[in-house]
Write a structure and sequence with these properties.
Layout (H helix, E strand, L loop, with lengths): L39 H19 L6 H10 L2 E4 L5 E7 L5 E7 H5 L7 H7 L4 H9 L2 E10 L4 E10 L4 E10 L2 H11 L18 H13 L4 H29 L1
Helix pairs in contact: 1-8
């Protein structure tokens, strides 16, 4: 039976026709009038931005101490840059391998929270396509690289994160024969896997015993529901921080 932590069930603009106006009379030329802009709209926008920034800053923006304790306990270092949504967690496992966790804050915070998804899915069983579409909207990508420094190779895994029950779904497991090149080229560009590269078999098609073994392997290395909770909680704090910075920068421009 598969681990409770992991769930392997996954599964133009309209064209505007241009119209020609034809006439046999010579129309008098029209001198284009320059539109004069006033500062009224800019002042109004600035006022609204300032009000939104004031309200936003009045709300607490603190990263719960328990999450810092989680980082310390698990040995993860947090790597992030102001103005970007890409985040990395990295640590050295007990077997000496380097574990990298990559996620996108914008993608995590865009997931709708639908606690009654399962009930809604049951109601629409006759429309399997709609059910899968609803599930896809509740998943975000979390990417894992387990790097063997000695051999310079690694396992790259794409996981789906469910915010409804803080669990991961394994998408695929991919072998990287040159981990350093993968990190410096693919990861740095945010591309990860080349679209022409074989990603590996669909995880849900693997023998159940192999699926469970992979899940236990990940859990032993800290890829578990605690990590899922951290990723979601940190993403909310990071997104709010970036939003406040954005409000301040646009307000300063005006």
């Amino acid at each position: 039976m598969a681990s409770r932590l992991f769930n392997t069930t996954l599964k133009t603009l309209p064209r505007v026709a241009a119209t020609r106006l034809a006439t046999k009379w010579i129309r008098p030329s029209i001198v284009p009038q320059m539109r004069l802009y006033s500062d009224s709209t800019a002042s109004q926008l600035k006022q609204v931005l300032s009000s939104e920034l004031k309200i936003s800053k009045s709300l607490p923006l603190e990263f719960d101490a328990t999450y810092q304790e989680y980082l310390d306990k698990q040995g993860f270092s947090l790597i992030e840059t102001d103005g970007t949504s890409a985040v990395e967690l990295v640590k050295t496992a007990s077997d000496g391998n380097i574990i990298h966790v990559y996620f996108d804050v914008d993608e995590i915070t865009d997931i709708p929270v639908e606690e009654n998804f399962e009930e809604e899915a049951e109601v629409g069983e006759d429309s399997l396509e709609e059910e899968y579409g609803a599930m896809d909207s509740m998943l975000s990508n979390v990417k894992i690289l387990i790097e063997n420094k000695g051999r310079n190779d690694g396992l790259f895994m794409n996981l789906y994160l469910q915010n409804t029950d803080l669990s991961f779904l394994v998408d695929f497991v991919n072998y990287q024969k040159d981990a350093t090149k993968f990190v410096t080229e693919n990861v740095a560009k945010g591309e990860f896997i080349d679209k022409f590269q074989y990603q590996g078999p669909r995880f849900s098609d693997l023998d159940e015993s192999l699926q469970v073994a992979f899940e236990e392997y990940l859990e032993e290395r800290g890829i578990n529901e605690e990590l899922a909770e951290f990723v979601i909680s940190y993403s909310e704090v990071k997104e709010e921080k970036e939003y406040r910075n954005w409000l301040g920068e646009v307000n300063n421009f005006l």
